[in-house]
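Tip: read the tokens left to right.
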């Protein structure tokens, strides 16, 4: 078997590889994309098993597709955990590739779960809709500012037919009028696109029984349920709910020492979109259920004064 450690960069990759049978060792710097593709295709002609290890990174989808086509085994590693295994204070591309190769050979490579192609493609649907909604929100906020500057305060009613007519009838200076017209045109283009993407999300949600089951929970719709299932992937990877919360970056940052426990803001690690959707679902649930809202706020107050310390570790009065 040939084992290859890859230090991946958008423009090139530094590799360190070894043939486990002959002991032959080689280091190379491969430019993207032609030189790297030529190297791997030539390697495939040798008809030997190949295992490639690299840190989780972006802009490497083409390489993943190539290795899958050539039937090479690809291991993706946790970049943060690989960093902790570095002993030397010096850091170069060659040393990074050698470290990954060493971890592969010693069976200490921190391999992580990688979603399949279908999962990734549906994630693109969610991200595309998410970005379109954000763009529409920015446009709507600008139009609200235009209306407020002219004394028109309608809030959500601005987007109804009568509010739209009032906005269009405002007497504005030439460039302010041009801005209003352009923003309204963009808004009219975005809304049908978002509606189409929302329908596609609902269709994808109905294909998955686990998503339909999550949708029975108050405040959880097709978008939140589908996003959660896609990001979590294989739930067997997690032993408890705390690990899921940590994976999504919803646990507090902790810096404790001695008898003092110091908790900060949430870590915000993991998928930002899933975190956003879950928070939105929680807020919707609390708004729709007054009893649940009372429980949430009372438990939050209790957590803030536990053990006589505030949220940031400072003693409270008493």
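Filled-in amino acids:
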């Amino acid at each position: 078997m040939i084992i290859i450690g890859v230090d991946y960069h958008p423009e090139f990759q530094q590799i360190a590889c070894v043939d486990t049978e002959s002991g032959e060792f080689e280091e190379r710097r491969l430019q993207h994309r032609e030189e790297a593709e030529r190297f791997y295709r030539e390697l495939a002609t040798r008809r030997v098993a190949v295992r490639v290890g690299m840190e989780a990174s972006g802009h490497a989808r083409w390489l993943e597709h190539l290795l899958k086509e050539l039937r090479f085994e690809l291991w993706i590693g946790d970049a943060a955990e690989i960093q902790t295994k570095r002993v030397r204070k010096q850091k170069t591309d060659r040393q990074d590739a050698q470290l990954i190769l060493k971890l592969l050979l010693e069976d200490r490579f921190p391999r992580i779960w990688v979603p399949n192609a279908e999962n990734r493609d549906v994630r693109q649907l969610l991200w595309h809709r998410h970005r379109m909604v954000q763009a529409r929100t920015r446009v709507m906020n600008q139009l609200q500012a235009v209306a407020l500057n002219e004394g028109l305060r309608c809030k959500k009613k601005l987007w109804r037919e009568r509010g739209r007519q009032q906005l269009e009838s405002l007497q504005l200076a030439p460039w302010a009028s041009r801005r209003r017209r352009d923003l309204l045109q963009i808004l009219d283009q975005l809304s049908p696109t978002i509606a189409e993407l929302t329908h596609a999300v609902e269709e994808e949600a109905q294909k998955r029984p686990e998503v339909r089951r999550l949708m029975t929970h108050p405040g959880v719709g097709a978008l939140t349920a589908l996003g959660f299932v896609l990001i979590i992937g294989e739930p067997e990877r997690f032993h408890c709910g705390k690990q899921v919360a940590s994976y999504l970056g919803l646990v507090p940052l902790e810096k404790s020492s001695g008898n003092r426990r110091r908790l900060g803001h949430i870590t915000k690690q993991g998928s930002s979109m899933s975190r956003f959707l879950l928070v939105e679902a929680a807020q919707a649930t609390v708004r729709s259920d007054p009893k649940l809202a009372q429980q949430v706020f009372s438990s939050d107050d209790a957590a803030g004064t536990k053990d006589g310390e505030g949220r940031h570790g400072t003693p409270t009065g008493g």
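The chain has a mean pLDDT of 89. The chain is about 55% helix and 15% strand.
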